[in-house]
Amino acid sequence: MKFILFKIRNLSCLLLIVSSMTLLESCEESSVITSTKGTLAGKVYSVSKFAMRNIEIKVGDKSVSTSDDGEFSLSDVEFPCNVILRNPGSNYATKYLNVTEGTSTFIVEGVDSYTLNTKLKITLPSGIFDNSDNATMIFSDGMNVNLSKEFDSQTPPEELFVSYAGSNPVTGKLHVIIYSKENSKVVTFDNYAVSENIETVLGQEITYDFSMNQFDLNPGEKTVNINIPVPPSGSYVGFNFLSFSKYKNINSQYPARQSFILQSPEVVIPLNIPGLISFAEIHTSGYVGKERLTEESSQSFQTKNDPQLISPENNAAGISGATEFSYTQSQGTGIYFIDVYNSSTQERYTLVTKDNSFLFSEITEMAEISTSNKTYNYYVRKFGEAADIKDFLNNYYNSEVSYRAGSDLRSFTTGE
Fold it and tell me: What is the pLDDT of residue 126?
């Protein structure tokens, strides 16, 4: 009887093992069915939309470097996959989790191509200011703002630098908007001029002389109310911008910025300037709201709460690869950029995910030097409205329905 019972128990174990193997095999088959193999190809940009050359793209044990125009192609990749972008010779890396097939644009954090520019030497005629005291020059190719410079009547610029959205020079126009301010707020727009097409040449110097005849438009102005909702508490700042760019991202240039008070949010914007776009933003620790003011179908976007860090606690010690980092989802759809850095060792690692938690091993996988016994700072940025990483990356530079929010800064120390 004991022998039969012993056999039955082993038979049960055998059945359990067989069932487990069948279940595991079924899961593996299911995983194979849902994953796909294909080519990961596209272009790598900096956050200010420079095409980045010689950036290493790594997926598993496969790697490739971007060409001079930022392009790359990596075949036989199994999707979804984790993609690491690294700037050779530095301790900067960006990692995207669970990238799906069809993602064609990637953004690498921490590096840029500031040397790609053309010098413009500008001459302005005397007397253009009259009773005005401020002006802004904006160079735009119609898609991006490649240059923006605000100045006053006493210190007009003699030379400016045109930056490129890609690795190639552009053809664009130089706009000059003249206005008067009171208490840092624009009250009138008094004059406007625009150049002919200027074809830039990489690394060279171009001279352009404005004539008095070009300053023949008094655009006029109107006062508009800002309709971006503002939370009842917190420290917020409002700004109004002028731009000739149809894209949200304008090469980190903020043209013709003026502030407004949130208790009575209104600004004065110019009229009758072809192609001009004016928009308002409200900032807290991150970008939280935006509204276009010069389009009939202007759209207001709801203010979003910042993500709140949950774990680990500030100044936590003994952090290892198994330590979980978590933060609140905050409002709205979007993806998260987690920035981990050590200024003394010049390390910066950026993890991009749609989830609101991750293991520290995702960070250490990016590192080419030891992360043990070091103190790091970190914070979380949320970008929306994006359903997933593919949606975010493929639409980052031309999305108008967007926001950015950021968490507080915390520190932690790793263990052995």
Answer: 82
pLDDT > 60? residue 99 = yes
For 375-391, letters b (16+ CB in 10 Å) and e give ebebbbbbbbbbebbbb
- pLDDT at position 97 is 95
CB-based contact 84:72 (threshold 8 Å): no
Number of helices (H), then strands (E), belonging to the chain: the values are: 3, 30
- Say which amino acid occupies 105: T
DSSP helix/strand/coil, 329? coil
Distance from C-alpha of 139 to C-alpha of 147, rounded to nearest angstrom: 5
Rounded Cα gap, residues 291 and 401, in angstroms: 9
Question: Residue 49, by phi and psi: left (phi above 0), alpha (psi -120 to 50) or beta?
Answer: left
Mean pLDDT comparison of 152-161, 234-243, 393-402, highest-scoring range: 152-161
Task: Find the range with the poorest average confidence among 94-108, 125-139, 338-352.
Answer: 125-139
Judged on CB neighbours under 10 Å (0-12, 13-18, 19+), 148 is buried
3-state secondary structure of 87: coil
Residue type, 269: I
Comparing CA positions, the residue from 11, 13, 108 lying closest to residue 52 is: 108
CA-based end-to-end distance of the chain = 55
HSE at residue 197, side-chain half, CA atoms within 13 A, is 5
Give residue 236's pLDDT: 64
Does residue 83 surpass a pLDDT of 80?
Answer: yes
pLDDT for 169 equals 61
CA distance 8 to 14: 9
Average pLDDT of the segment spanning 317-326: 97
**Are 191 and 128 in contact, with CB atoms under 8 Å apart?**
yes
DSSP strand E in 153-265: where? 159-163, 171-182, 185-194, 198-199, 205-209, 221-225, 237-243, 258-260
Contacts 24+ apart (CB under 8 A), 366-369: 366/84, 366/86, 366/93, 366/94, 366/95, 367/91, 367/93, 368/86, 368/91, 368/93, 369/91, 369/345
Whether 407 contacts 285, CB under 8 Å? yes
Residues 6+ apart with CB under 8 A from 210: 122, 123, 124, 125, 128, 176, 193, 195
Q: Is the pLDDT of residue 276 over 60?
A: yes
